[in-house]
UniProtKB/TrEMBL annotation:
The keyword Magnesium is annotated on this UniProt entry: no
Residue span, HTH asnC-type domain: 9-70
Keyword Ligase: no
Alphabetically ordered keywords of this record: DNA-binding, Transcription, Transcription regulation
UniProt protein name: DNA-binding transcriptional regulator, Lrp family
Domain of life, source organism: Bacteria
SMART domains xrefs: HTH_ASNC
Organism lineage: Bacteria, Bacillati, Actinomycetota, Actinomycetes, Micrococcales
GO MF, any single term: sequence-specific DNA binding
Entry-linked Gene3D superfamilies: 3.30.70.920, Winged helix-like DNA-binding domain superfamily/Winged helix DNA-binding domain (1.10.10.10)
InterPro entries noted in UniProt: AsnC-type_HTH_dom, Dimeric_a/b-barrel, Tscrpt_reg_AsnC-like, Tscrpt_reg_AsnC/Lrp_C, WH-like_DNA-bd_sf, WH_DNA-bd_sf
GO cellular component: cytosol
Amino acid sequence: MVNSTMTPLDEIDRRLLAALDEDPRMTVLALAERTGLARGTIHTRLERYRTSDRLRPHSTRLDPAALGHGIMASVAVELNQHHLDDAVAGLARIPQVIEVMAPAGQTDLLCRVVARDPDDLYRVSEEIRLCPGILRTSTSMFLRTVIPYRMTALLQE
């Protein structure tokens, strides 16, 4: 989720978030030792991150393959614009839809989905297609991850 009102990161934020990126289970004491920051500063920053949605939920670290969903795909969705809310609500009820974005261009919504096998991907794609307001879908299966999700480089720029 993009929040354009979020304050920019300062050097303290970058040091703290880089340490958490290395080990998100690090205690406040360990973070203080690693970053050279006071524990009170760390507590304050961590609370601000939690309340401002700066940090994603911990579940984003889970590998879907470890949960039996070894196939990942994108499903491009064309929808009736008057039923956007209904379509989004329907997509939110499908557990295999792990992320939905609204891109610029001809695609109305782009869904990242996971599945157990090709037959399950077909089922998930059909479940998406049958959501209220969805007119058409196009599914592309990912063969492998070339560059995994990462944030470390952004923290260092």
